[in-house]
Amino acid sequence: MCAVCKQGVPKETMTYQKGRVFHIQCFESQGSTFPVIDSELAQMSARTRIELVQMKNLKVRSDAEEITKKVTKPKKKTAKKSKSKPKKTSKPKKSKAKKSKKKTKRR
């Protein structure tokens, strides 16, 4: 993307000067009007944008928590009543007769 005309630049007609991409003709005509990019300023700008996004996210989360606190009412705790279950009377189990296994001959 050419810094002057804001159009795409093919590799054949591209020149990279002052930290930007230009068409050769655009750089010759208006390239001197573009200052060199200050790397410290660019890093500070990037950090500031990141911090701004983080602060916005934090604000949205805190607002959402406040809304949920207002909407949800705490439930009253009731004492659990223990219900005694009737005891089952155990019936004597019938024993099953074991089936005899057939013996096989070994060869």
Structure description:
The model has no long low-confidence stretch (mean pLDDT 80). It is elongated and about 105 Å long. The protein contains 2 helices and 2 strands; from the N terminus they run E-E-H-H. The protein has helices at residues 24-30, 39-71; strands spanning 14-17, 20-23.
Question: Tags for this entry?
Answer:
2 strands, 2 helices, two-stranded antiparallel ribbon, mainly alpha
Write the topology of this structure.
Layout: E1 14-17, E2 20-23, H1 24-30, H2 39-71
Antiparallel strand pairs: 1-2
Biased composition (Basic residues): 70-107
Region (Disordered): 63-107
Question: What's the quick description here?
Answer:
With 107 residues, the chain is mainly alpha-helical.
Mean pLDDT: 80
Question: What would you report as the Rg, rounded to the nearest angstrom?
Answer: 41 Å
Q: Which percent bin holds the helix content?
A: 25-40%
Number of strands: 2
Number of helices: 2
Biggest sheet, spatial arrangement of strands: 1-2
Query: Roughly how many Å apart are the termini?
Result: 89 Å
